[in-house]
Amino acid sequence: MTTSNTSRVPTSDPQPPPTVLAEDVRPPTLVDRAQRLLHAQATLGPAGVLLLTIVAFSVIAPNFLAPTNISLILQQTAVIGTLALGQTLIILTMGIDLSVGSIMVLCSIVMGRLSADFGVPGPLALLVGLACGMACGLFNGVLVTRVKLPPFIVTLGSLNIFFALNLWFSRSETVRGTDMSPVLMWTGQVLTVGGMRLTYGSLLMLAICGLLAYALHRTRWGRHVYATGDDREAARLAGVRVNRILLSVYAVAGLVYAVGAWILIGRIASASPQAGVMDNLDSITAVVLGGTSLFGGRGLIIGTVMGALIVGVCRNGLSLAGVDVLWQNFAVGVLVILAVSLDQWIRKARR
């Protein structure tokens, strides 16, 4: 007795094989390999750009590599670098902070006036200033996480709020460093190392860099920050308390900006209501040049320090070459556009 084979034939139509595009099977070119390498090694690009700019300006300006000039670059980078470290946390979560400079200046005025005009002891004035920075960050974080406003709009509005508070509390007057506690001026003191004059403010920036790098790569909080920035909905489904992470990021960033205010006081030996208000662009430039993606989820703290050094080297080198400040800002703007374009190109790297 034989059995008919027709009962074993599937009734549904066979599915066509998946279409294979020609670009998926072609061997990777040199450009593809470079794109993949830059995608895998986020700090490789910033390190190369920093090296190129140092070589270029050492040729253009013979005294560029003099120890005194290197010391000056490091001192100038300390404030921008510290602000950029806080900005990096925000951008890693796919946000942006336009109130960086205003928070820093407001905190510096709070510290300066409490010490000089109200007779508050230096350590206590410093603690109040740090708390002020954290409160400003929390203010932004609450609006982003609870009211669900875009970070760009929130920080654009708070920029003006904090700047107005700064003018009100300072009465548009500069607080002199000689009237303040030595504790607030400590970040401007100089330490001579190998012919270079380093300030404690520069060393403080490096210490913050180390702490944040450890927190981002060795703690659960850091992994949640990256996960939130990479795909917020996926992170939420995986059990990450996204709003709590975002709120903590804004609070920590505000605290870092307040430390930047302390460094600023030591750098300019005063607390001025106008100093550093426009440092927003330089901080964002340093973060982007350092390889942190504006689309969140990708970037390294050490890259941000390199980015801040690139900005400092460019401004210093152009100044030594006699280029007007107007064209220095022009060059920084061009760097931002090139860095964002490069970031978009790197993100398209084929796996």
The CATH topology comes to ABC transporter involved in vitamin B12 uptake, BtuC
Distance linking N and C termini: 56 Å
- Broad CATH class: Mainly Alpha
Tell the overall outline: globular
Number of strands: 4
Q: At CATH's second level, what is the architecture?
A: Orthogonal Bundle
User: Which secondary-structure class do the elements indicate?
Assistant: mainly alpha
Strand content range: under 5%
How large is the count of helical segments? 15
Q: Poorly predicted ranges (pLDDT <50, ≥5 residues)?
A: 1-12
Mean pLDDT: 86
How does the major sheet shape up?
A: 2 strands, antiparallel
Order of helices and strands: HHHHHHHEHEEHHHHEHHH
Strand order of the largest sheet: 1-4
> What share of the residues lie within helices?
55-70%
Rg for CA atoms: 25 Å
Total count of domains? 1
What would you note in describing this structure?
The protein has 351 residues and is mainly alpha-helical. The protein has one domain: ABC transporter involved in vitamin B12 uptake, BtuC (Orthogonal Bundle), CATH 1.10.3470. The protein contains 15 helices and 4 strands. The strands form 2 sheets. It has a two-stranded antiparallel sheet with strand order 1-4. Strand 2 and strand 3 (196-199) form a beta hairpin. Helix 4 runs parallel beside helix 9. The longest helix is centred in the C-terminal third of the chain and has 27 residues, at 242-268. The radius of gyration is 25 Å and the shape is globular. It starts with 21 loop residues before the first helix and ends with a helix. The model is unreliable at 1-12 (pLDDT under 50). GO terms for molecular function: transmembrane transporter activity. This is Fructose transport system permease protein. Residues 1-23 are annotated as: Disordered. Pfam families: BPD_transp_2. Its main location: membrane.
